[in-house]
Amino acid sequence: MLIDEHPERARVLEEVLRCAGYAVVLRATGKTDLAAQVRKTNPDVILIDMESPDRDTLEAMHTLTREQPTPVVMFVDQSDSESIQRAVRAGVSGYIVGAVSPDRVKPIMEVAIARFREFQSLRDELERTRSSLAARKNIEKAKGILMKRRGMSEDEAYQALRKLAMDRNQRLEDVAVNVISISEYL
Amino acid sequence: MSLEKPNLRLGVMRLTDCAPLVIAKERGFFAAEDLSVELSLEASWANIRDKVVAGILDGAQMLAAMPVAATLGLGGISRPTIAPLSLDLNGNAVTVSNTLYGLLENADLSQGSRPIRMAMALARLVDEGKRSGRAPFTFATVFPFSTHNYELRYWFASAGINPDEDLNLVTIPPPQMVAQLEAGKIDGFCVGEPWNTLAVQRGIGTVAVANYSIWNNAPEKVFAVNADWAAANPRTLQALLRALIQAGRWIDQPENRVETVHVIAGESHIGVPTEAIASSMTGQFQTRVGGEILSVPDFNVFFRYGAGFPWLSHAEWVVTQMYRWGQINAPLDIRRIAENVYRPDLYREAASSLGISVPACSRKTEGTHDTVWKLDGTLGPIEMGPDLFMDGKTFDPDRLVDYLRGQTVKNLRISLDALAQYNR
Fold first, then answer.
1. Which of A100, B101, B281, B336 has the largest count of CB atoms under 10 Å?
2. Which residues 74-103 of chain A have a CB within 8 Å of chain B?
3. How far is CA B211 from the centre of its chain?
4. What pTM was estimated for this model as a whole?
5. What's the complex ipTM?
6. What domains can be seen in chain B, in order of their start residue?
7. In angstroms, rounded to a whole number, what is the distance separating the alpha carbons of residues B106 and B117?
């Protein structure tokens, strides 16, 4: 999917993409209902002019609706190539500098998609690590509370939490959070 | 001592509250600080954020929630970003299509202030729509991490509407709002000026509420830079802040408002007729062609009421809303986030050097003043504005999690008990 306010440039870019073996499923501008179009065409990758106002719409679709994110490749006019190189160094996104040839487009697209997947999996992993760390901390804390208030040994406290979790059909970490929050009122 | 970086590029959006940056340039406040500034008109908030992150822009006008989002990496890559200055208070409104306004007027059966009545009327229409199976109304804001988004949702939620279940919320850049409303793609939007007035003057929409009446003197835009940039260019940053504070003070003198309107309306800045900007900037806000004129003298506040001060409590309110609407799903220390992102210390240094009285505290309770009040300042009392919420609730920065518990409609992605452990 290609988003560009300038029809002439979009036509050239589409031609270049076609030669590189990509099919453009939709050429869009801000006048169209972008969110609906993305949902309908479900593109593998979205190319957008960095200066397009539609970037905010595109971004919000991913952050607000938490839809399956799509890799986004930005492109800019050559005059701005220094900017875009800095943006890429900072990790903003994949990029294509204006007036490219088909043999240069392909590697850029592939790298952008690969980097996007890498970033996604890193983010998922970080999310998992973060929540399991927090869970472990809570369980330790809840065990501590039970040991102190009920005079249990560490193993007894852990078994008590596990039993609570099974009885209530809850996850161990949720039970731990409950124990901690209730303890404030004891 | 000389400035580390006298030649700067700052980003602005086509909105009335780009005024402090434009006036600082056009009226020579930057030049008086030995700064040579190029203003770069940007097409999207995402672009502003990315260019500041990448160092393509030295700093920019940002939505109050953006530096928090950029620091936490919400919606983009994470890079510590700071807000040493608030650019203005208020400035937004909710505009609906004339068709929807007609329906709202018919469903307007409640008592109370305009925002309460309008929200209740909308809730009635939403209920009717659910029963009859009509497609939900579509409302647009400008960016997920914006006061517009949080204020609009606050307004919906006050009448029991859950925006994520009962409505369709989309993001549209400000300059496209009017066209999308005209094309019938959206039923309403919440945006800064001049886009509400433009919709009204073209006969396309009617203003349902000015956001001032959702929350009096709410934070709006900030001036933001990278934390690294600030550390590397401390003297330049102070010079910038002094220029922008003086520009804000100049704009807030009533006799300068008309000139401000003429300067910012030009093609190189906002690029709309001066009439579209004048009505909100002079406090006479028109709700529809030939219709009621709302007198909102504080529609745009740039300096009065301590407007420039980046209150930690404002940043904390923003973070509570990020939790409320599921934008953050990890438990974090909200006060620490605010202290890392909002930097009242940098504002104090700049304002004090100009002889301006600044608040000694960095947090304040919201929702307790229905009229102008006095706050102790370092160089004498500061006149502060009203700070009521439309539903009469109070925001106490010492009880952030309790505040979230007190919000009836919310779409949390984390348990408040877990959040409370990090916010004692």
1. B281
2. 83, 86-87, 89-93
3. 10
4. 0.85
5. 0.82
6. 7-89+218-267+302-402 (3.40.190.10), 92-213 (3.40.190.10)
7. 11
Tokens linked to B130: 């659910």
The burial class, CB within 10 Å (0-12 / 13-18 / 19+), for B132 is: exposed
Whether the Cβ atoms of residue B397 and residue B313 lie closer than 8 Å to each other: yes
List the beta bridge partners of residue B377. B359
Q: Which of A37, A38, A64, A174 to mutate to test the interface with B (most CBs of B within 10 A)?
A: A64
- A100, A117, A152 - which closes a domain: A100
The pairing of strands B221-226 and B59-63 is antiparallel
SS (H, E, C) B26-94: HCCHHHHCCCEEEEEECCCHHHHHHHHHHCCCCEEEEECCHHHHHHHCCCCCCCCEEEEEECCEECEEE
Is there a domain that residue A109 lies in? Answer: no
Max Cα–Cα distance, chain B, nearest Å? 70
Of A28-42, B39-53, B312-326, which gets the smallest average pLDDT? A28-42
Strand, coil or helix: B12: strand
Q: Indicate yes or no: CB of A54 within 8 angstroms of CB of B144.
A: no
- Is residue A65 within 8 A of residue B75, CB to CB? The reply is no
pLDDT tens by residue, A76-103? 665 555 666 666 665 555 556 555 666 7
Over residues B138-151, mean pLDDT: 95
**CB within 8 Å of chain A, chain B residues 33-72:** 43-47, 50-51, 53-56
Inform me whether the C-beta atom of residue B368 falls under 8 Å from chain A C-beta atoms: no
**Both structure tokens of A106:** 């392909």
Amino acid found at A2: L
**What total number of domains does chain A contain?**
2
